[in-house]
Design brief:
Layout (H helix, E strand, L loop, with lengths): L1 E4 L5 E5 L3 E3 L2 E3 L5 H6 L8 E7 L4 E8 L7 E7 L1 E8 L10 E7 L5 E4 L3 E7 L4 E7 L8 E3 L17 E2 L1 H5 L6
Parallel strand pairs: 6-14
Antiparallel strand pairs: 1-2, 2-10, 3-4, 5-12, 6-11, 6-13, 7-10, 7-12, 8-9, 8-11
Length: 176
C-alpha cells in the first residue's frame, strides 16, 4: 500500500500495490502493521456497505459527535464516487477546509478519514457500492451532519446531486 498525505492532517489517500498474473490480480486492502508503520494507525472494529442505485446520489456530510468520533477507511467496491472530508476540529490549522478524491472499484484507491471530520460522497456511476471500515462500533444517538453545500466549506462537487435524503438535505450550515 502507498500512503499519500492530503492538505488536511488526518486524511490520507491509500493506493493499492497490485500483484497481477494470468489468474487476475491480488491486493491487500488493509494491514494494521502497514498503516502503523506509515504513521497512520487504524484498526477497524466494524465494516459497513452503502449501496447506491443511481449516479449523482449524495450522502453526507456526516460525523459522530465527540467523544464518539470515528475514523474510517472508505473505498468504492463497485462503481465510483467523489469522496470528501471536511475538517471540523476547531483547534486544527485546516479547520473548515475540505479535501476530496475520486475512489473507484477499478483503481482500488481508498480514503482514510480521521476523527473530527465530516464525510460525504457523490456517486459518479449507477450501481455504486461503498465499503466503510470504521475504528469503533456504532453507537446510536451521536450521529450529526452539516449541509453538503455549506458556503463556508466551498466544496467543489463534480456534479449536482439528483438523489439526496431528506435528512441530508435538511442539515444546517456549520456553526462554530
Amino acid at each position: 500500500m502507498r500512503f499519500t498525505a492530503t492538505d488536511i492532517d488526518g486524511v490520507v489517500i491509500v493506493d493499492l500495490d497490485v500483484i497481477s498474473d494470468t489468474r487476475g490480480s491480488f491486493s491487500r486492502l488493509h494491514c494494521p502493521e502497514d498503516f502503523a508503520a506509515a504513521g497512520h494507525p487504524f484498526v477497524p472494529a466494524q465494516t459497513s456497505l452503502s449501496r447506491n442505485a443511481k449516479a449523482r446520489t449524495l450522502r453526507g456530510m456526516h460525523y459522530e459527535a465527540a467523544p464518539h468520533a470515528e475514523a474510517k477507511l472508505v473505498r468504492a467496491t463497485r462503481g465510483a464516487i467523489f469522496d470528501v472530508a471536511v475538517d471540523l476540529r476547531a483547534d486544527s490549522p485546516t479547520y473548515l477546509r475540505w479535501t476530496g478524491t475520486e475512489l473507484s472499484a477499478e483503481s482500488g484507491r481508498a480514503l482514510l478519514i480521521g476523527q473530527g471530520m465530516a464525510h460525504g460522497f457523490i456517486t459518479l456511476e449507477d450501481d455504486t457500492d461503498v465499503l466503510y471500515q470504521i475504528d469503533r462500533m456504532f453507537e446510536p444517538g451521536h450521529g450529526r451532519g452539516v449541509r453538503w453545500n455549506d458556503p463556508r466549506f466551498g466544496i467543489d462537487w463534480p456534479a449536482t446531486p439528483l438523489v439526496i435524503s431528506e435528512r441530508d438535505a435538511a442539515y444546517p450550515n456549520h456553526e462554530d
